[in-house]
Amino acid sequence: MKKWGVVLGFALIFSLVSFASSAQGVWKSLTEVSYKISEDQFGELYVPVFSENIKKLEGKEVEADGYIIPFEGMFKPEHIILSSLPLAECFFCGSGGPETVMEVMLTNPIKYTSKRVKVRGKLTLNTKDPEKLMYILKEARLILE
C-alpha cells in the first residue's frame, strides 16, 4: 500500500509540473530567437532571427498566457501587449527580453485585469516593422481570465 502512495505522489507532482509548463503555452518555444544587426534610415537596429521551431508556429493557432501590460499610458481593449512575466519583471521594465512580450489583436474587446489571462490566436512573426513587437497574435480570443 505504501508503494502505491509513493507512485500516486509522483504522479500528482508530474501532473502539476506538466500543468505548470503547459500553462505557459507557447512562451518556451518563443525563446529560441537570436538577433542580427541591421540598419534602416534611422540607424542601427536589431532584427530577430527566428529558429526553425518558431518558424513552424507562424500562421498557426497558439495559446499564450500572461499579464496585460498597459502601453502609451492607456489600455486598448482590442489591442493589448501580453507579457509572460508580471508587470514588475516585464521587458518594458528592464527585466525580461523582447521574446517575453507579444502584441495581441483581439476579436472582442476585453477589460483590463492585473490577473494572469490566457489568449488563443494566429501567430505572426515580425522582422520588418520596428514599430511593432516581433510576436503578434492576430484574430485572438480570451480563453481564460
List keywords for this structure.
OB fold (Dihydrolipoamide Acetyltransferase, E2P); two-stranded antiparallel ribbon; 145 residues; 3 helices; 7 strands
Overall description:
With 145 residues, the protein is of the alpha+beta class. It has a single domain, classed as Beta Barrel (OB fold (Dihydrolipoamide Acetyltransferase, E2P)). It has three helices and seven strands. It has helices spanning 2-23, 27-30, 52-57; strands at 33-40, 43-50, 61-69, 79-83, 101-106, 117-125, 135-144. The strands form two sheets. It has a five-stranded mixed beta barrel. A two-stranded antiparallel sheet has the order 1-2. Strand 1 and strand 2 (43-50) form a beta hairpin. The protein is globular. Mean pLDDT is 81; it is low at 1-23.
Short description:
This protein has one domain: OB fold (Dihydrolipoamide Acetyltransferase, E2P), CATH 2.40.50. The chain contains three helices and seven strands; from the N terminus they run ααββαβββββ. The chain has helices at 2-23, 27-30, 52-57, and strands at 33-40, 43-50, 61-69, 79-83, 101-106, 117-125, 135-144.
